[in-house]
Amino acid sequence: METVLITGASSGIGCELAKVYAKNNYDLVLVGRRIERLKQLKSEIKKSNPKIQVKVIEIDLSKSKSPEDLFLLLKKENIKIDILINNAGMGVYGNFLELSKEEMKKIEKMLNLNMIAIVKLTKIFLNKMKTHKKGAILNVASTAAFQPGGPLMATYYASKSFVLSFSEGIRYELKDTGIKVSALCPGPTITEFEKMSEIKNWRDKIKVMSAKKVAKIAFRDFKKGKKIIVPGYLNKFSILASKIFPRELLLKIIKKIQQNK
Ligand SMILES: NC(=O)c1ccc[n+]([C@@H]2O[C@H](COP(=O)([O-])OP(=O)(O)OC[C@H]3O[C@@H](n4cnc5c(N)ncnc54)[C@H](OP(=O)(O)O)[C@@H]3O)[C@@H](O)[C@H]2O)c1
User: Most buried one in 66, 114, 115, 251, CB count within 10 A?
Assistant: First the structure.
């Protein structure tokens, strides 16, 4: 049986990915800060599939030492990771110039979580995968990664462009190793993202996908080894538009969408 490590499994897309992998008989390591939520998910999963192993770990991945701590903890328990899913992420909303000191601290945390933790976890687990000449890494970016920028969420958009670029770059480096790297680029999805990012209520204003649907498509396309996974036609269209429309016009549209939050 293969083991999949999912960061940010306590809610949203990560939680649904955990359920899909459980259904397909993978052992799971589920990571997040809200341990009670992870324990609850574990008992739910064990009830529906008692054959699989589920380990839950409480860790704050925005802290510099956390990726190494997580790796050492798993090493101590002799748990080998076959698939790494770097899903944990958050956003910070606001006009960059007007962000307070407190909000800037949040941005630093976000950049650590959305970029640095992914790079560190990828490096640590890749070393092991290289030894076994087998493994797979799925990094969760966003359709935001394709846009020229994200006025009012500029640092978040930039962090997702980083995730996409990093994933494509190392995928190419690893093409002859048996290790595959993919990027998942969801569009607006119903999760706890807005609550965590302190964004008001935009969900009823634009069409969104369920986290369950995103996870189902992600599982299917990642298994096929697809480089960039974009769930849903509307999201595929938004990426196409980002390649056709002038960058200035896209920035204007994105700002309008963000202003409605
Ligand atoms: N929802 C969308 O519209 C959308 C669109 C495109 C991309 N995405 C991306 O999808 C990914 C999943 O987000 P989601 O929409 O499912 O949101 P979510 O429901 O808020 O889930 C985010 C997950 O990340 C975890 N997390 C947050 N901060 C963490 C930290 N410091 N250390 C460890 N784990 C942390 C959270 O767990 P704890 O709070 O328990 O730590 C939670 O499980 C993110 O990378 C996000 O950028 C979301």
Answer: 114
